[in-house]
Amino acid sequence: MFSKGQLIFGLIFAIVFIILMVWSYRKDVKLHRLYYKKVWIVALGIFLAVSLFATITFWLH
After folding, report:
1. Which domain holds residue 16?
2. Count: domains in the chain
């Protein structure tokens, strides 16, 4: 399916991408703690809205 060069490129790309993402997160962890304290409330609201929509949809059918 893939050539050897494509597999090597994909592997190197994935490793570098993961390293950069971890480095970026570590750099901004203090800001995340400061600005995203109550993000769980938003996640809960989205979960409840989707659950309510799914319940109403299945109930009506």
Report:
1. 4-60
2. 1
Q: Could you read off the pLDDT tens digit of each residue along the chain, which spans 61 residues?
A: 889 999 999 999 999 999 999 999 999 988 888 888 888 999 999 999 999 999 999 999 8
Cα→Cα distances 44→9, 24, 38, 40, 41, Å: 39, 26, 10, 6, 5
- The reported pTM is 0.55
Tell me the C-alpha distance between 46 and 36, whole Å: 16
Among the residues of the chain, which ranges form H helices? 4-35, 39-60
